[in-house]
Amino acid sequence: MTSSQLGDVFNEAGSVISVEIVYDRVTDRSRGFAFVTMGSVQEAKEAIRMFDGSQVGGRTVKVNFPEVPRGGERAVMGPKIRSSYRGFVDSPYKIYAGNLSWRLTSEGLRDAFADHPGLLGAKVIYERESGRSRGFGFLSFASAENAESALNAMNEVEVEGRPLRLNLAAVRAPPAPSPGPGLERNVDNSELISSIST
DNA sequence: CCTGAGCGC
């Protein structure tokens, strides 16, 4: 089974952000499982509900959260601290939102866009030391189309008394040079692990 | 830096 076929299956439970079938380093054969990143924890739960124990590609599959998520179970389901920043779901389709009120939080930003399809996450950027808002933030979407239509609908719309200045987000700077041996796998808190073989 | 352009740690 290909990752794109697997993605098609999981799309029935919500927005699939990425699919990564794990292969054996030497034999290049599928190891029989994959990581599927869904757009939200909610959608991840839905995928588990729908597909755990079901037939996929002619096999009975197991679908569940990764066994040892980064930070442990508490971090996965635990309460948010200051904003939806911790729960921010990234995607390649992002809007830059500027001219934000100093008091607008990530949740406030998310709420302002709540009606728009495909919204995955919102975050306001804060200064590290002072904790003050830097007056801008980002919104991530499931698709380029979703991002564009939200941008068109919300640009210059007033939120907390100030008109939003929206743009498609610039392509992010390259990831920082990795310091150590790169054995870390990117296990996100909305990923699923499933046993699926070809 | 009690701020108003800024593209994230």
Automatic annotation (TrEMBL):
It is found in: Plastid, Chloroplast. Its main location: plastid. It comes from the Eukaryota. Residues 189-198 have a biased composition (Polar residues). Signal peptide: none annotated. Residues 1-68, 93-171 form the RRM domain. Pfam families: RRM_1. SMART domains: RRM. One of its GO terms (biological process) is mRNA processing. Residues 173-198 are annotated as: Disordered. The keyword Glycoprotein does not apply. GO terms for cellular component: chloroplast; ribonucleoprotein complex. InterPro entries: Euk_RNA-bind_prot, Nucleotide-bd_a/b_plait_sf, RBD_domain_sf, RRM2_NsCP33-like, RRM_dom. The keyword Magnesium does not apply. GO terms for molecular function: mRNA binding. Keywords: Chloroplast, mRNA processing, Plastid, Repeat, Ribonucleoprotein, RNA-binding. This is RRM domain-containing protein.
